[in-house]
Amino acid sequence: MGAAFHDASLLQQMLIGALLGLSVYLPLSCGQLSLATPGFYAIGGTTAALLSTRVPALGGGDPTYPLSSVMLEMAVAALVSGLLALGIGKLVLRLRGIYLAIATIALVEILRVTTLNQEALGGAVGIFGIPQPFNNPGGYAAFTLVVLALICWLFARLEDNRTGRAMAAIRDDELAAACQGIDTAQTKLLAFVFSALVAAITGVISAHFFNSWNARLGNFDASITTRAFVVFGGSRTWLGPVVGGLLLTALPELLRPVGDLRLIVFGLVILVGPLLAPQGLVTPERLQGLGRSLQGLRRAPGGGEPTEALDPGPR
Amino acid sequence: MLTKARLIVLLSSLLGTPLLLSSCGADRSGSAPVQLSEGVPVGAVLALSGNANVYGQDQRLGLNLALAARNADGGINGTPMRLAIEDSGSDDPGANNAMTLQINRGMLVVIGPTLSQQAFSADPIAQRRGMPVVAPSNTAMGIPQIGHFISRVSAASDVIAPLSIAKAMERNPGIQRAAVFYAQDDAYSTAETAVFQKALAAKGLKPVTVQRTQLADNDFQNQISATLALKPDLIVLSLQGVDGGNLVRQLRELGYAGPIVVGNGMNTPNIYPICQKYCDGLLIAQAYSPELATSANRAFVKAFIANQARSGQGPVIPPQLTAQAYAALQVVGEALQRLDKRTPLKGLSVSAARKALMDEILGGTYQTPLGEIRFTPEGEVIQKDFFVAQVRMDPNGKSGRFMLLK
After folding, report:
1. Residues 4..23 of B with a Cβ closer than 8 Å to A: which?
2. CATH for B37-155+297-375, among 3.30.365.10, 3.40.50.2300, 3.90.550.10, 3.90.170.10?
3. For B212, phi and psi rounded to 5 degrees?
4. What is the CATH number of domain B158-286+387-405?
5. pTM, whole model, 2 decimals?
6. Same CATH fold assignment for domains B37-155+297-375 and B158-286+387-405
7. Which residue among B48, B92, B187 places its CB closest to the CB of A210?
8. Within 13 Å and on the Cβ side, how many CA atoms surround B402?
9. Are B21 and A123 an interchain contact pair (Cβ–Cβ within 8 Å)?
10. pLDDT at site B14
């Protein structure tokens, strides 16, 4: 188990899981059940794979691929998927609930089948030999950690400002939110587009990290897996999908000592998680409880009563 | 209340700690001496779960048989060989993880991964970190070209697949209307169908139809009806075991009686339970024949049959995947033995042992169940014998065998 965990490549995959979790979470935080994340993830991955293997100028002269080119790929991928999300979002966001989910599944399928049938996009074999900006997984993990921290910071800011509150209001009751003067269509579209940007940027990182990219990496299975990150981690605060993505990506690897049964155990965990914590592992209430107990601990060395400090406080 | 900013700091530091730990010890695995206390460490990365799991199971058996044979024969000059098999799932990230795990554990060589698609993803990691890879079943073009450390004992599909087309034409010279099926979302299928279609074109046959299916499909009624309307007299399939087995069954049920040529994906007795009596007559080119009369193959077949009698299940005739996996471990064992005689493994660092082992693997000639094999300097296998076989099902429709066609 130790060998698996101390390996930065697992950490890197966990971070990718967390980013994808955030991408699914965003539309959900304004009540929209969108499963489009793998579609935009695939756009990001394919863009990075194409640009880095077909455009020699991006590679510079170095054996390691320049980071500035990765940034450029991110910008291109974000632009492409942002524009697509804008166009498609205007149409499909008129749908609600399960109908929106179905429309977004269709989007994922259309992108997948298009990729499979276009030799230029790699076809079924995919694109391989993607150049590496880092020589070891540690470099990837450090870079992705910075990206994740930045996006988490944006999410934290978002939840505190007017747009974030508008999203929460739409989630709780769209009609009431509209009556209060919130432009619900605009807010939902914003969430959808931002979600697409996060997914596309994650795709760019993944394509380099995986060495190869193919259409199966962004299929319907991925829709369900990324959705599970949010269900498992919790969908009331941005920390939920992050925790869910980290945990559920790591679990199959950490369970390797179990041997042949590991996927069965993994399935059981996914099943039992929502049964025991229907709101997900991380909820605002639990965070507040944790915050209070941490604050208590900090006060303790400064002369506070130790017994009081250990009291988690009323829930 | 805990502020959001503090939460981010907390989260980053939580994640950063293992990162720091790992980057400190990143290449510790390479410079450490080879760990021989539990045996000579050899790793494998097989698809034991996911949609390729039937292949992985066949391969695991072959590796275990070869391991038993090597260790019964004194291991690596007295030290037993230790085999650690890791599951790659059937996808790229799974294969990457399993490969990295084997590298970090200080294995000297990795046998695998099962699928070519996984190899394109995981092998560059091995190449970068100087880990020898012997692929037992990758047939796509370009695998040994990934780098110096990547080799394979499985002949590429462009060498093998055309043989079955030639055999079908030889048996039915009147063939004029060939129909082709392949799974368009699968790397192996799309690569092999290109080889098949080229071989057909070389015989002057332009396919009357090329039908695309999906790996996860089970119902092929539409494609089959469209095809049968064109009255084909040869059908060529590049499909994996499960979808291919189902397609064959439905082809026969819907009345197609002509010859069917299948590719390497259906080169496993695991198709018998799927197409049952309808498997009968399938033509397939193989890199292995159980009927090859060499002492290496007889020993392998004997060990296989004894093992199946003990476990009381599965086929009694070894599949190609099992033989190739056996050959891969045999190659590794013999190369390790030669290396250890020349430079004892005991004094070597892991990375030095890996490098020397790769040269030793490529330099040898091996008498395996596949016949005599060698390698090109690039790591591509040079195999002497190929075979075309026909599936013969027993009257009960439950079991059968690949009968060698002379």
Report:
1. 4-5, 7-8, 11-12, 15-16, 18-19, 21-23
2. 3.40.50.2300
3. -100, 135
4. 3.40.50.2300
5. 0.81
6. yes
7. B92
8. 26
9. no
10. 54
